[in-house]
What does this fold into?
Amino acid sequence: MAGLEQVPQHHVVPHDVVLPDTQRRIAEALSPNTERAYRRVAADFDAWCRSNDRAPLPCSPATLADYVAHLCDEGKAPKSIQQAIAAISTLHRRAGHPKGTPDSQAALLVLRGHKKALAAAGKGNKQAPPITVSVLQKMVARTPADTLAGKRDRLVLVLGMALAGRRSELAALDIDDVQPDGDGGIDILIRASKTDQDAVGEVVNVPAGANPDTNAVQLLHDYLAALAERGVTSGRLLRAVSKLDKLFRYERLSGAAINEIVRRAAVRTQLPNAAQYTAHSLRAGFATQAALDGVPLGHWARHGRWNPTSPVPHGYVRAAEKKTHNPLKKMGL
It folds into this structure.
């Protein structure tokens, strides 16, 4: 072809293969948690393909469907299987394959059957119970206020709800991310989130609370003062604390540790099914409380950084309306 020099065949790179340096740049664009999840899925899928004489990349729709059936047989949760399907699809796109490779229609039908079987057996998907304001107040009241760990845990509980925070967002906070807003409240910078993959960042305003036990501004002040007494005035906000209430100076709380803080508080408060409570209970509680209180969906969804096209916020509204607009309330039963 005119204008193009003929390249010897052995120097030609396939048009659908992404070079190693490009793969590295793609990986760096993802959050560390997402990248770890993709690596885990890739390793598991590759091992299964090798043991079953299948090609992992690109894989056929039949291979993906069979792998999903394998995950179902292993008793994996539907959400985990859905994430595996999405990760495998993303790994294909990262490798330069067209969007929609592999076709996941058959795999999703296998997953649907798995969900139906679990539901029929009474093992359907169990959501983390929401922590509404009244429940949050009880949990904070049962959390010690005179220890470093207690001050941190009280802040985790209240900030988790006030920010509608994902556990990854809470774990990523630095002290400098929290600033006074000039009106008695605080502005908190969320550097990146699930719906902000470009890490543009978003500032969330948290006003002072009316209840002393759930006033995020005062709880933050108490916790920062305790850190300052130990010589810490910058760096990570939520830190690991030993059983002797000693600070692990260089350790940031993990998402799993934040889950455990919420679970322990639920156990202390003797909540029903306490073991089911997680950090997501705080985020779900924010949405549930806002929906029950009639706050416009657009306002609280924006505050909580929900994707406006997601069906999730509407699900909280429908659940709340089952109580607020229950027709039985007008029937005199």
User: Anything to note?
Assistant: The two ends are 83 Å apart (CA to CA). Residues 1-7 have pLDDT under 50 and may be disordered.
